[in-house]
Amino acid sequence: MKIISENKAFGGVQGVYSHASEACACEMTFAVYMPPQAENGPVPVLWYLSGLTCTHENAMTKAGLQAHAAEFGIAIVLPDTSPRGESVANDDAYDLGQGAGFYVNATQAPWSPNFQMETYVASELRDLVTEKFAVSVHHGITGHSMGGHGAMTLAMKYPGHYQSLSAFAPIANPTQSDWGRKQLGAYLGSAEESWSANDASLLLKERGWSGDILIDQGADDQFYDLLKPESLVTALVETKTAHSYRLQKGYDHSYYFVSTFARDHVAWHAERLKG
Amino acid sequence: MKIISENKAFGGVQGVYSHASEACACEMTFAVYMPPQAENGPVPVLWYLSGLTCTHENAMTKAGLQAHAAEFGIAIVLPDTSPRGESVANDDAYDLGQGAGFYVNATQAPWSPNFQMETYVASELRDLVTEKFAVSVHHGITGHSMGGHGAMTLAMKYPGHYQSLSAFAPIANPTQSDWGRKQLGAYLGSAEESWSANDASLLLKERGWSGDILIDQGADDQFYDLLKPESLVTALVETKTAHSYRLQKGYDHSYYFVSTFARDHVAWHAERLKG
Q1: pLDDT at B20
Q2: Does B253 participate in catalysis according to the annotation?
Q3: Which residue, among A4, A5, A7, would best test binding to B if mutated, counting the most B CBs under 10 Å from its CB?
Q4: Which residues pair with residue A13 across a beta bridge?
Q5: Cβ neighbourhood burial of A52 (10 Å; 0-12, 13-18, 19+)
Q6: ipTM exceeds 0.90, yes or no
Q7: Handedness of CA B248, B249, B252, B254 (dihedral sign)
Q8: Cα–Cα–Cα angle for A217, A219, A222, nearest 5°?
Q9: Which residues of B touch A58 (CB under 8 A)?
Q10: Chain B residue numbers touching A61 (CB-CB < 8 A)
Q11: Which helix (H) or strand (E) segment is B185 a member of?
Q12: Is the entire prediction scored with pTM above 0.90?
C-alpha cells in the first residue's frame, strides 16, 4: 500500500492511498479518514460508496464527513467507483465503464477482467483496511446515488459484514431504470435473471435486511425519475423492514444535499456501531 | 446579475451569480450562501477571500462554511480572486494575473484596466450584495492565504466597512516575500513606497485595526516561509492589537486546515456582528 497524501483534519488524518488490487487487476486508489480517537485504539468504520463519475475524492472534499467522523469517533473509507487505467476497458459515456462500476462483479467482456467492484469493496479492500488501519470489527455502509444502491446491495449480500446501513438518494430499482438496465446489461449480460441479485428493491424482497435503514432523498432531485425511489419505498413497506425514509423538501442530487444530512448519517451509524 | 446556479444547503441557499463589473471591466462570478434565517429578515454577512489559483468555487465546495453559517445565521460571500476572460491580461505563472489578483488596484500595464480587485471587493461587489441580498449593515471579513492578507488589508483600509476580522494562514508580509514582491512589483510598479499600503504587517503599524483579530496558522504549513507569519505576530504585539493567534500543530495549508477551524471563525464573526 502506497501513501499518496496525508493531511491533518479535525484532529485526525485524511489519507489517500493506492494498492495493487487482485480483484480489479489494476492499481486502485482509496481514501481513509481516521479520527483522533483512533490514537487510543480501534474505532468503528463507515464505508461511503460514491456515485457515477466520482472517484474517492469527490466525497472526501465535498461531503464534510470528517467533522462528523471526528465528533463521533469513527473512521470513513471512500473507495473509488471502478477500476481505472489505460489497460482497463472503458466507454465514452459517463455512465458506463470507468467511474461507473456499479459495485457488481462483471461476467461479460470486455468488463470482467477488471470490473469486480463487489468483491473489491466487500472483501479485498475490507481486508486491507482491517489490516492497515486501527479499525474495529464494527462496519457500517452508506453511499450516494449509484453508491447508495451499492451500499444497500452489499449490506444485503454480505450478512454480517455490515452492522448499519444508510443511503443518500440511492438508485433504488436499477432493473427498471436507464440508470441500471444499460450497466447491468453490459456487465452481466442480456439474461435479466442475473440482474435481480443486483437490484436493491428486488433484493430486499428476496433476502431482506436484518437491521434498519436510514434513507434521505431530495424532493427536488433532478434525477428523481431515474432513481425510482417509489420502488424502494414500496419494498420497505411490503417487507416491513425497519427504516427511516426522509423526503427532503427543496434538496437536489448534489453534494450540498449530501453534506446537509451527512451528520445525521454518521450519527445513525455511530449509534449502531458503538452501541 | 445572472443566476448561474442555486442549491439548497443546510436549509438555506448556496448560489453562484455573475455580473458585469465596472471596476474590473469584465464579467465577474461570485458565490453567496444565504442561511435559512434570512427568510425572516436581513442577516450579517461574512466575506471570505480565497487564495492563489482559487475561484469562488474552492471554498464554496471545500471549506464547509455553509453548515456554520446556517448554525449562526450569517450569510457568506465568496468573490473570485481576480478578473477573468480572454480579453484580460494574464501570465503563465500560477501566482500572477488571473487567479492572483492580490486584492489590490493595479496601476501598471497590462494589469490596470482590469485588476482593480480592491475596489471591486470593498465597493462594487459590496454594493451589489447589499442591494440584491437580505444582508444587514454588519459585515465581517476573512480569507485564506492571499485572501487572508486581503481580508486584513481591506479591513484596515476601509474603516467602518468591516466590523470583524479573521484570517486563515494569511500571507503576512508580502513586501518581504516571493509571495508579494513579484505581484506588487507587477501590479504597482517598481517604486516600493507604493507597496507598503498593501502589506498587512506594515499597514497594521501605520493605520492599526480598531477591533480584534483571530488568526489560525498551521505549524506544518508547507508555505510557512513564504507567508512570513513572524512579521505579523511582531506587528500585532508591537501595536498592542487585540488578537488571538493560534499556531495549530500538525496542520498544513490545505482546505483540510481551513475546514477544521472554519466553525471557530464563523462563530468569532457571528459574536461580533450580532452582539
Answers
A1: 98
A2: yes
A3: A7
A4: A8, A34
A5: buried
A6: no
A7: negative
A8: 95
A9: none
A10: 61-62, 255
A11: helix B181-188
A12: yes
The three cell numbers of residue A159 are 450478512
Residue A247, amino acid? L
A34 vs chain B: nearest CA distance in angstroms?
13
Q: How many whole angstroms separate alpha carbon B210 and alpha carbon B160?
A: 10
Is B145 a known active-site residue?
A: yes
State the Cα–Cα distance between residues A175 and A162, nearest whole angstrom.
24
- Written as nine digits, the cell of A29 is 486508489
Catalytic residue among B145, B166, B201, B231: B145
How high is the pLDDT of residue A275?
A: 76
> A194: helix, coil or strand?
helix
Residue of A31, A47, A44 lying closest to A152 (CA atoms): A47
Strands (DSSP E) contained in A22-171 are 26-34, 43-49, 75-79, 135-143, 164-168
Instruction: To the nearest 10°, report the CA torsion of B17, B22, B27, B33.
Output: -20
What sign for the dihedral angle of Cα B183, B184, B190, B192?
A: negative
What are the phi and psi torsion angles at A161 (to 5°)? -75, -35
Do A8 and B66 make contact, defined as CB atoms within 8 angstroms?
A: no
- Length, in residues, of chain A: 275
pLDDT of B189-233, one tens digit each? 999 999 999 999 999 999 999 999 999 999 999 999 999 999 999
Rounded Cα distance between B82 and B79, Å, is: 9
How many beta carbons lie within 10 A of that of residue B148, not counting itself? 31
Partners of B165 in the β-ladder: B141, B213
DSSP B97: B
Give the tens place of pLDDT for each residue, B40-94. Answer: 999 999 999 999 999 999 999 999 999 999 999 999 999 999 999 999 999 999 9
A113-148 in b/e burial notation, b at 16+ Cβ within 10 A? ebbbbbbbbbebbbebbeeebbbbebbbbbbbbbbb
Q: Which three cell numbers stand for residue B41?
A: 429578515
Start-to-end CA distance of chain A, whole Å, equals 32
Which cell is B7 given?
A: 442549491
Q: Are A42 and A134 in contact (CB under 8 A)?
A: yes
Cis peptide before B170 (omega within 30 of 0): no
